[in-house]
Amino acid sequence: MLMQELIARDHTRAKNSRGARVSLFAPLRRLRRSLFGNHG
Q: Which superkingdom (predicted)?
């Protein structure tokens, strides 16, 4: 029971961190593309 709860919590935490990482890196990627697009 405890193991299942820990595994479920770990899965949700991984999903949340992944979503946060994507939301953080999406604008960074767009900014980098615009910056280096001007240089190109």
A: Bacteria
